[in-house]
Design brief:
binds flavin-adenine dinucleotide; 319 residues; alpha/beta; seven-stranded mixed β-sheet; FAD/NAD(P)-binding domain
Length: 319
């Protein structure tokens, strides 16, 4: 059996491609290494999307949420509904490991099996690979690159690293629930693109001293009971129980190489793809969703990548 298309990644993008492939009558399969919309399941438990539910809608299925911006829980429900309504062909808990090619077909090798296909869509996102600080002590269990909820940090001295949306959200939520919060911020201000409803809140908490913030400051080492901070004047210690390193994520480049996705060798490390069809310079292999932004992860999100699915399926079906 040779598939028309194998979609690697069952996130919002992979699901969208699967729906379009099904509508176009293609023989398709989605391979997902974890559960349905694995990244969204692992987002902070109480998170609210910055997009409106209308702007996250795909195909013809309305996304109903209680307020204009949906919660993580509502998004999980939405994607379950799409999979159920379209009866999508998805295999869960099956990581794709590598791709090989044999003339005009590809073989996707997973942890469980191998599948032949004419086309591949790589929609693996970026949420599985945190950007590391690269400092001593980063491997201590008290250092987290993913944030779930505030409760474990009640009464704890928490250092939040970063100044973008996630860092500001985490600093505010942990402070509100009773953590003693300090922020270490590499730049001289809160990131200018922080959402307009979050930015004044965090700036005012910093101004009134409820949340301590060290600007132009980096972390140079982490120890079980303290953290060493550094600026141009020198280094100093602060007492610390937990480090929440909200420094962002990046595509898994080792995986992309094994999936035969060509990558630019400049610092943006962009997948090399055609702007219209999203086919990479490796014929028959396409990239879709947020992975397409390479290291510029804040450029693409669900909202502005919803057209990827239709463009790719049109290109494949047209061949
Ligand atoms: C906290 C947070 C809030 C966000 N809020 C918004 C928002 O409000 N609006 C918006 O538009 N965007 C938002 N984004 C950005 C965007 O929603 C997410 O990045 C979104 O999940 C991207 O969809 P995707 O399908 O491209 O990638 P992902 O959702 O990351 O999906 C990739 C999938 O590929 C799977 N995968 C990875 N490797 C393999 C493998 N080897 N084999 C098989 N499967 C694999 C993963 O398990 C995952 O399910 C937010 C991101 C974050 C982190």
């Amino acid at each position: 059996m040779v598939y028309d298309v194998i979609i690697i990644g069952g996130g919002p993008t992979g699901i969208n491609v699967a729906v379009e492939a099904k509508k176009a009558g293609l023989k398709y399969l989605v391979i997902e290494k974890g559960m349905l919309v694995n990244s969204i399941f692992n987002f902070p438990a109480n998170m609210t999307f910055f997009s409106t539910s209308k702007n996250l809608e795909i195909v013809d299925i309305p996304f109903i949420s209680h307020t204009d911006k949906p919660t993580r829980k509502e998004a999980l429900e939405y994607y379950r509904r799409i999979v159920e309504s379209y009866d999508l062909n998805i295999q869960y808990y099956e990581p794709a490991e590598r791709v090989t090619t044999d003339d005009n077909t590809y073989v996707v090798h997973t942890a469980k099996d191998s599948y032949s296909t004419r086309h591949i869509v790589v929609a693996t996102g970026f949420y599985d690979t945190p950007r590391m600080l690269g400092v001593p002590g980063e491997d201590l269990p008290k250092v987290k690159h993913y944030y779930d909820e505030a409760h474990p940090y009640v009464g704890q001295k928490v250092l939040v690293i970063g100044a973008a949306n996630s860092a500001c959200d985490v600093a505010l939520e942990t402070w509100q629930k009773g953590a003693d919060v300090t922020m270490a911020i590499r730049e001289d201000s809160i990131y200018e693109k922080v959402k307009y409803w979050i930015r004044p809140n965090i700036e005012n908490r910093i101004k009134e001293g409820s949340i301590k913030a060290h600007f132009n400051t980096t972390v140079s080492a982490i120890y079980p009971q303290n953290v060493v901070l550094k600026n141009t004047e020198g280094e100093w210690n602060i007492d610390n129980d937990y480090v929440l390193a909200m420094t962002g994520y990046m595509p898994d480049y080792d995986l992309l190489a094994r999936l035969m996705v060509p990558i630019s060798d400049d610092e943006l490390r962009l997948p090399e793809y055609d702007a219209e069809t999203l086919e990479t310079s490796q014929p028959g292999i396409y990239v879709a969703g947020v992975v397409n932004a390479g290291m510029q992860t804040s450029k693409l999100f669900i909202e502005n990548t919803r057209d990827h699915a239709e463009r790719i399926v049109r290109a494949i079906a047209g061949k």
